[in-house]
């Protein structure tokens, strides 16, 4: 009797396992990228407080630990030694009586200007907005104020300054996202702050007392929405110092909703003087927002953005975790004619994770074929690199039920594009199933593309990183196939690389 009971249990177990294996995978685990940072659980938005210290990159982020939509903001925390493999750390900053912990930055206060360091210890100081929801509800206009906190154990634990806030809003409702850096021209800290749709610059000798220096933004750049999450830093190009000002904008992006614009110019420690007031986008895709750079990284500049868009971030079909960061990108300045450009690429950081790749099947490369045979051993994540004469060229990642994501270059329009119209789930937001486009900025004869696919995201870097596009998508079935398309008579070189096996 006992034995037959055991047998029945065993058979039921086998039956349940078979049933489970036959179910389509509807869990949101299938959308979780492998190469991109995601929170363990629940809601994440902007990257915050990015600072490099003693061999460790710190990534803090807007985090709501109790739900999968935006809520009272904390700073989540993760660390890495290569910007790619992240270790989750305990929450760094919790809301308090002054409000939620909104976006901001962190600096290494090497000279202990703040006086927080004791016995020769170097303090890390975080500067962030406190959003006082209760004051807002009572009708106050000064509900976003800047506060600071310090760490004496290399970012593990943080103590809030007892005299917070250090910079109160002068009655302006959108007054947030301080990005602070040390300015050697004036030997002071400079805070770059987003104020409505302008940037205000403040200075301070000690991170505690702030003086307003100037404003920037009138008649410059895009103003379709509020300005948020700025960054200001110098870069070198052939010995010349060029200042980069990043400004996120929501809504009003080139492909609707949230996006990040940039200005190049001079900063004299007080005022930003742009070379041009024209709008330039750091990324034309719909899903790269609130991106800023790591502080304390010497001559290198690494950028990371939130890989989502406020238009639909809270409705995307992942439930146990919500949203990922972009890949880390190295920024550089290039000159094109008389114009300077901000370029970005992820090549060096991601290279160790991919095989050197193989040439796309020789048989498929014969000129004269409009559509090459499917390359049907798609691994995901993967990296595809293409170079081609100026002509239509694209890669389609698809499943076997008609779902497809198409990424490429449209010669007639002279545009790059990511077409997710038919790439999977989209009913959660009416404007999600779209084809996003970006102008080709380079002027050379051939076009050059790197495409990185990672489960539910695609990043495109064109012409050595002059044009970038980032988009998320949610395939109904896993993609199993990659197809290369190009026109008759065109020379195309393509390299396909899966992830290295561990
Ligand atoms: C940008 C933003 C910031 C703000 C934070 C709140 O996405 O709106 O301006 O500090 O998110 O979570």
Task: List key phrases describing it.
mainly beta, 44% strand, binds beta-D-fructofuranose
How is this structure best described in words?
The strands form seven sheets. A six-stranded antiparallel beta sheet has the order 22-32-23-28-29-30, with no helix packed on it. A five-stranded mixed beta sheet has the order 4-3-2-1-19, with no helix packed on it. It is mainly beta. It has helices at residues 2-22, 133-137, 347-350, and strands at residues 42-53, 56-64, 74-80, 87-93, 100-108, 124-131, 144-151, 159-160, 175-183, 188-195, 198-204, 211-216, 226-237, 240-250, 259-267, 272-274, 289-293, 302-306, 321-322, 329-336, 339-345, 358-359, 382-389, 393-398, 404-410, 415-419, 435-439, 446-453, 457-462, 467-472, 481-486, 492-498. Strand 1 (42-53) and strand 2 form a beta hairpin. It starts with a helix and ends with a strand. Bound molecules: beta-D-fructofuranose.
In what range is the share of β-strand residues? 35-45%
Which distinct ligands sit in these coordinates? Answer: beta-D-fructofuranose
Number of helices: 3
What is the share of helical residues? under 10%
Strand order of the largest sheet: 22-32-23-28-29-30
What structural class do the secondary elements suggest? mainly beta
Task: Map the helices and strands.
Blueprint: H1 2-22, E1 42-53, E2 56-64, E3 74-80, E4 87-93, E5 100-108, E6 124-131, H2 133-137, E7 144-151, E8 159-160, E9 175-183, E10 188-195, E11 198-204, E12 211-216, E13 226-237, E14 240-250, E15 259-267, E16 272-274, E17 289-293, E18 302-306, E19 321-322, E20 329-336, E21 339-345, H3 347-350, E22 358-359, E23 382-389, E24 393-398, E25 404-410, E26 415-419, E27 435-439, E28 446-453, E29 457-462, E30 467-472, E31 481-486, E32 492-498
Parallel strand pairs: 1-19
Antiparallel strand pairs: 1-2, 2-3, 3-4, 5-6, 6-7, 7-8, 9-10, 10-11, 11-12, 13-14, 14-15, 15-16, 17-18, 18-20, 20-21, 22-32, 23-28, 23-32, 24-25, 24-31, 25-26, 26-27, 28-29, 29-30
């Amino acid at each position: 009797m006992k034995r037959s009971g055991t047998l029945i249990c065993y058979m039921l177990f086998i039956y349940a396992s078979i049933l489970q294996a036959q179910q389509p995978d509807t869990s949101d685990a299938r959308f979780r990228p492998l190469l991109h940072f995601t929170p363990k659980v629940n809601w994440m938005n902007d990257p915050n407080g990015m600072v490099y210290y003693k061999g460790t990159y710190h990534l803090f982020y807007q985090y709501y630990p109790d739900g999968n939509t935006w809520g009272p903001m904390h700073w989540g925390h993760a660390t890495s030694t290569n910007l790619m493999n992240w270790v989750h750390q305990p929450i760094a900053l919790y809301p308090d009586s002054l409000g939620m912990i909104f976006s901001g930055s962190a600096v290494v206060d090497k000279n202990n200007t703040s006086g927080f360091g004791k016995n020769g210890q170097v303090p890390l100081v975080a500067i962030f907005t406190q959003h006082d929801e209760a004051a807002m509800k009572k009708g106050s206009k000064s509900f976003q104020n800047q506060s600071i906190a310090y760490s004496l154990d290399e970012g593990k634990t943080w103590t809030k300054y007892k005299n917070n806030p250090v910079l109160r809003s002068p009655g302006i409702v959108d007054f947030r996202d301080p990005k602070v850096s040390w300015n050697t021209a004036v030997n002071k800290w400079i805070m770059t702050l987003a104020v409505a749709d302008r940037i205000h610059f403040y200075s301070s000798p000690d991170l505690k007392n702030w003086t307003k220096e100037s404003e920037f933004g009138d008649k410059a750049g895009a103003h379709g929405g509020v300005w948020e999450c700025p960054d200001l830093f110098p870069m070198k190009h052939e010995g010349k110092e060029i200042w980069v000002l990043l400004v996120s904008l929501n809504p009003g992006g080139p492909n609707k909703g949230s996006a990040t614009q940039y200005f190049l110019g001079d900063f004299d420690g007080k005022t930003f003087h742009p070379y041009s007031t024209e709008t330039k986008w750091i990324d034309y895709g719909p899903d790269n927002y609130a991106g800023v750079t790591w502080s304390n990284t010497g001559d290198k500049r690494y950028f990371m953005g939130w890989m989502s868009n406020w238009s639909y971030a809270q409705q995307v079909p992942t439930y146990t975790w919500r949203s990922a960061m972009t890949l880390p990108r190295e920024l550089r300045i290039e000159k094109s004619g008389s114009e300077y450009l901000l370029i970005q690429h992820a090549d060096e950081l991601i290279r160790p994770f991919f095989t050197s790749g193989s040439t796309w099947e020789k048989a498929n490369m014969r000129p004269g074929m409009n559509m090459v045979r499917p390359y049907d051993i798609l691994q995901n994540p993967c990296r595809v690199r293409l170079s081609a004469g100026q002509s239509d060229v694209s890669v389609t990642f698809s499943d076997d039920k008609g779902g497809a994501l198409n990424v490429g270059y449209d010669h007639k329009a002279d545009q790059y594009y990511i077409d997710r119209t038919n790439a999977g789930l989209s009913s959660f937001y009416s404007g999600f199933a779209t084809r996003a486009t970006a102008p080709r900025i380079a002027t050379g004869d051939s076009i050059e593309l790197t495409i990185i696919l990672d489960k539910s995201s695609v990043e495109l870097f064109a012409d050595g990183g002059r044009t970038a596009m980032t988009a998320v998508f949610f395939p109904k079935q896993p993609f199993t196939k990659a197809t290369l398309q190009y026109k008759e008579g065109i020379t195309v070189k393509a390299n396909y690389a899966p992830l290295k096996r561990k």
